[in-house]
Amino acid sequence: MQIHILAGSDIRDALKQAAQEADRAQEPAEFDFNGEVIRVPVGSNPVALFGDWQRRQDAAARAYRASPGYVREQAERAERAAEAQRGVNLFLELLEEAAPLDLRRGLKLLYLYQPQLDHVDVLAPWADLAQTFGVLAPAKWGVGRKDLKEPGNEEDAARWIVGQAVDAFRQGYPPHPMLRTFAEPILRTWGAS
């Protein structure tokens, strides 16, 4: 007998429901779970069924991790991560060389190195970056995204952009990729891109 399991159900709950349905109807139950047809005989123990299901999942995961495609993908990921980390390390060196940092140089560095910072496998001193860039973007009343489109208001707009990066750094994250979109016209106006 085919039973319906709600999308998003936990496998343990689904197995328990199927076992109850099979026992009630006195015939095996089956259901689709993430593309796998699960068969539940009458009198089944849901805990044992879960153990069987988990072993199948583990075996499939081991087989996938041993596949040439996965191994190649992981090697490529490691190389991308190493390259991004080299970029972050260069960014940190350039920050040290640029001390004391001014708004134009700071915005340009953020613009240039945002892609390297925004990589899941890189390590960066987020709190230190928040402090370093925080001096460039002190809070200023009434300055916001609207300033990005005001000609002659590039400095306030740049402070807002750097402030967004500082907020991300304080939370332990890299700046959002939109930083580059917002910064580019300002840097072009300043002749720094």
TrEMBL record:
Protein name: Uncharacterized protein
Species per Swiss-Prot/TrEMBL record: Deinococcus petrolearius
